[in-house]
Design a protein that fits this description.
4-stranded antiparallel beta sheet; alpha+beta
Length: 583
């Protein structure tokens, strides 16, 4: 689109302006009047066609399809047509133009102006020559501005390509050609097809009908795409869920793992005793049980005990959920993970288990079997600790018992070897004998004192008393030697008593250790009989009387949303790619 200048003429300086002759002279910068023999200037008013009403001038100018003169080109009159030049003169004129050393831009502009005037030239220099012969100076700014203004007005007056031409009811006389034009007169353009009101209405009706047909076609294609990508798959999914899918029964149960450590005693002080009965103490055990119930080991064990694989190979199950007869362990395990859903809540310590099966009784049996597997797993987690405790306690008790027996045998051997049953009793007897002899000795000494107190004691009586005293002293000394000195038959009572006391003290020590070991063994037996970790069933499994799955309406709605989202993403992707390719 060519934008015409907003002013009729624009001149950089007064010297380049084209004005009417005012008083025969125009003011110039050099004081010389402007003159050009190839340009004649005259001011004329545009002639109006006779019989044309003035109020229809704008409509007639708008309805015309030929070039419109805005009054600029009429000021410049073309010179007389030049005489055709010979070949030698043409070569000389072209050489003179080359000698002017015109720039490439000036030559390119001259070639374009010649093309606008439909002048056929062979070179840029010839374009300059032909234009000058017609009175157009391609290097003159005024002429160039007039040409661009005329071309812009002509482009604005030209109707659009798809706009039908509307003829007025009363044909107006053609406007007269301007008296003065730049360049030769152009032939009239061929008139467009005359559209009457009936033809225009028919054309508008045809366009509206074509638009409606296209709209119906687009709506039909959109409906077909929605039918193929959204509605039909949703109908198939709904038909499967409502008519084909096998009803499945779910049994729900809930249990938790509790700890019995520290509940009967408060010996566990500190943070360990505080957390011994909380859920933090059994968190790892609950996670371990959850992992075991969702493992392949539990699946194989359930299949061996309750025929889990055979339950889903029944011909009455729909083909989507039915396992083939030669199903592998991996395929069975994938179905097992979908059929056994286990969740763990760490805040409450509860394990929720949902078991799905084609039959309600099978679902109940599978739940009971899995709960039994969980109990076995809980028992196995503390069985090693209990076994170690019992083995250590039994070993300590047996060692103490054997040492007690050895100490008893030592005491018996000493008693048999020394010939003394009780050295304490033996020493008591000897000491009693010494005490009795000393009593007799004291009596004899008293009698001897009484006898000697007489003035004339009886010598025989004194000698007898003195003999008794001497014998008593010898017996006392001999009896005392039995306690500390031995003879050929046995050792002294002191040595015998020492050995026996050592053996008896060893026996007493071994007996005390044996009692301690027996108490430890009994405590270990109690701990072994008592479960350190045990499973507490909160919600017992109950077989359902109605099918839990499939949820036909919810699943159909989800399928519709999924297919709609896929279609929307594909449509957006296709439109974006189409826009990128078109741009």
């Amino acid at each position: 689109m060519t934008t015409p200048p907003k002013v009729r003429r624009y001149h950089a300086s007064a010297a380049e302006s084209v004005r009417p002759d005012m008083g025969g002279e125009a003011a110039c910068p050099g004081g010389q009047p402007f003159s050009d023999s190839s340009i004649r200037i005259s001011v004329r008013k545009k002639a109006e066609p006779p019989g044309t009403p003035p109020q229809n001038d704008d409509r007639e100018r708008f309805m015309r399809t030929d070039p419109v003169d805005e009054g600029l080109l009429s000021q410049v009159k073309p010179p007389d047509p030049p005489m055709p030049a010979s070949g030698t003169d043409l070569s000389g004129q072209l050489a003179a133009i080359r000698a002017e050393n015109l720039s490439e831009r000036q030559l390119r502009i001259a070639r374009r102006i010649a093309a606008l005037h439909q002048i056929k030239v062979a070179s840029d220099e010839e374009a300059v020559l032909r234009l000058r012969q017609r009175g157009i100076d391609p290097s003159h700014r005024a002429a160039l501005g007039q040409i661009l203004s005329s071309e812009g007005s002509r482009a604005q007056a030209r109707p659009a390509a798809n706009t039908p031409a509307v003829m007025p009811k009363k044909p107006a006389a053609p406007a007269p050609r301007p008296a003065t034009e730049v360049g030769p007169a152009k032939p009239d353009l061929p008139s467009r097809e005359v559209l009457t009101e009936e033809k225009r209405a028919a054309e508008i009706f045809r366009i509206q009908r074509d638009i409606a047909r296209r709209r119906r076609r687009r709506m039909f294609l959109l409906g077909m795409r929605l039918l193929a990508f959204v509605i039909l798959p949703t109908v198939l999914a709904g038909w499967y869920y409502f008519r084909v899918a096998t009803p499945l029964y779910a049994t729900v149960s809930q249990f938790r793992i509790q700890s019995a450590e520290g509940q009967g005693s408060s010996g566990g002080g500190g943070l360990g005793g505080l957390l011994s009965g909380s859920q933090l103490a059994t968190n790892t055990d609950s996670v371990a049980v959850q992992s075991y119930l969702t493992s392949r080991d539990a699946m194989l064990r359930l299949d061996a005990d309750k025929a889990f694989r055979a339950a889903y190979q029944d011909p009455g199950i729909d083909p989507v959920k039915r396992l083939p007869s030669d199903a592998t362990n991996e395929a069975t395990f994938e179905l097992y993970r979908k059929s056994v859903k286990i969740g763990y809540d760490p805040t409450e310590g509860m394990i929720d288990m949902e078991v799905i099966a084609p039959d309600p009784q099978q679902s109940h049996d599978f739940s009971l079997a899995l709960i039994a597997y969980a109990e076995d797993q809980v028992d196995q987690m503390t069985s090693r600790l209990r076994d170690d405790q019992m083995e250590g306690a039994i070993a300590i008790y047996q060692d103490a018992e054997s040492k007690v027996l050895a100490a008893q045998r030592r005491v018996q051997e000493l008693q048999q070897t020394l010939g003394v049953l009780d050295p304490v009793a033996e020493g008591t007897v000897v000491m009693n004998q010494v005490s009795a002899l000393e009593t007799q000795l004291a009596t004899k000494r008293l009698e001897l004192g009484q006898v000697l107190s007489n003035p004339q004691p009886l010598q025989s009586r004194v000698a007898a008393l003195r003999g008794d005293i001497t014998r008593l002293e010898e017996m006392i000394a001999e009896t005392r030697t039995q306690l500390t000195e031995g003879d050929g038959k046995r050792n002294s009572l002191a040595l015998i008593s020492g050995e026996l006391r050592i053996a008896e003290s060893d026996l007493l020590t071994r007996q005390g250790l044996l009692a301690t070991a027996a108490a430890q063994m009994e405590a270990a037996r109690i701990e072994a009989n008592k479960q350190v970790r045990y499973l507490s069933l909160s919600v017992a499994p109950v077989p359902p009387d109605e099918a839990t799955y499939p949820k036909a309406f919810q699943n159909t709605l989800v399928a519709f949303l999924i297919f709609s989202g896929i279609y929307l993403m594909l449509s957006l992707t296709a439109s974006i790619l189409r826009e990128q390719v078109s741009t």
